[in-house]
């Protein structure tokens, strides 16, 4: 497995877009994002925006509650937003967000490994920050075809 170091938001979005483009998915192919409401959704919206020209259906699943899933749609002058209920039916790609691996989340690595087993034919992508999957021990429980692991550094200036 090759490894490349990139930076900034484009360093997260470009590899994701390139990976999805190379899959040459047909119209309506589902890309299903599993993540934490509120904290993962802005990143998911950015990931969806990066592939906006592709004919895919993007779906957000809060935690692992597929019955609460919503389709993500492009809204003019806004970006991607949650829309109508839309439980996944046959994902081509499953994206697991690292927020799920954070302490005190109602999801375990075994839970998400079960999701991947359920959608066995789907490609698997992980997107996390600060080695969250590694720190939480998730990498020994599941395989990612693409893993994007970004760092966040913050500088605060105030008066």
UniProtKB/TrEMBL annotation:
UniProt cross-references to Pfam families, sorted A to Z: DUF2124
Lineage: superkingdom: Archaea
InterPro entries in UniProt: UCP004962
Name of this protein: DUF2124 domain-containing protein
């Amino acid at each position: 497995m090759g490894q490349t170091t990139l930076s900034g938001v484009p360093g997260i979005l470009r590899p994701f877009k390139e990976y999805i483009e190379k899959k040459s998915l047909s119209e309506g192919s589902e890309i299903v994002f599993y993540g934490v409401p509120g904290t993962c959704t802005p990143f998911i919206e950015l990931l969806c925006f990066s592939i906006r020209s592709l004919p895919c259906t993007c779906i957000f699943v809060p935690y692992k509650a597929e019955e609460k899933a919503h389709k993500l749609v492009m809204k003019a002058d806004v970006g991607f937003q949650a829309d109508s209920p839309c439980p996944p039916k046959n994902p081509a790609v499953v994206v697991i967000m690292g927020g799920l691996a954070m302490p005190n989340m109602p999801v375990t690595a075994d839970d998400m490994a079960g999701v991947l087993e359920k959608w066995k034919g789907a490609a698997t992508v992980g997107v996390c920050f600060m080695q969250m999957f590694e720190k939480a021990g998730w990498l020994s429980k599941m395989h990612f075809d693409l893993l994007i692991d970004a760092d966040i550094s913050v500088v605060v200036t105030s008066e």
